[in-house]
Design a protein that fits this description.
By secondary structure, the protein is of the alpha+beta class. It has 2 helices and 5 strands; from the N terminus they run ββαβαββ. Strand 1 (3-8) and strand 2 (11-16) form a beta hairpin. The chain starts with a strand and ends in a 13-residue tail after the last strand. The structure holds FE2/S2 (inorganic) cluster.
């Protein structure tokens, strides 16, 4: 089972999730990492779930078109949209410090 570590508001939250879990779906049904995880649409349209991957990024698929559209150059800095990710491996991430790429605002 993948271990998930989330850093938010100066605190660290840890939990295990079933293989093939989506953190936004889990938060939506009030399982870990709820309530310590920000999200809104669950469909790659709002960037509210944007998270910087601190470790485990090598196990994730390449960013899909929604992530590319919403995150722009922030992908290069390690940001992903967890609503678009189904986890199979351990991951550590933070939702602190996201600044939207100005180039994505007009889209
Ligand atoms: S929850 Fe809206 S983009 Fe992920």
């Amino acid at each position: 089972m993948p271990k998930v570590v989330i850093h938010k508001d100066g605190q660290t939250f840890e939990g295990e999730v079933k293989d093939n879990s989506n953190l936004v779906v889990r938060a939506g049904i009030k399982q870990f990492p709820y309530p310590h995880f920000s999200y809104r649409c669950g469909m790659g349209k709002c960037s509210q779930c944007a998270s910087k991957i601190l470790s485990g990024a090598e196990h994730l698929p390449p960013p899909n078109w929604k992530e590319q559209k919403m995150l722009g150059k922030q992908i290069e800095a390690g940001w992903r949209l967890p609503c678009q990710l189904w986890l199979h491996h351990d991951i550590e991430l933070t939702q602190e410090g996201f600044v939207r790429d100005p180039a994505t605002l007009a889209r």
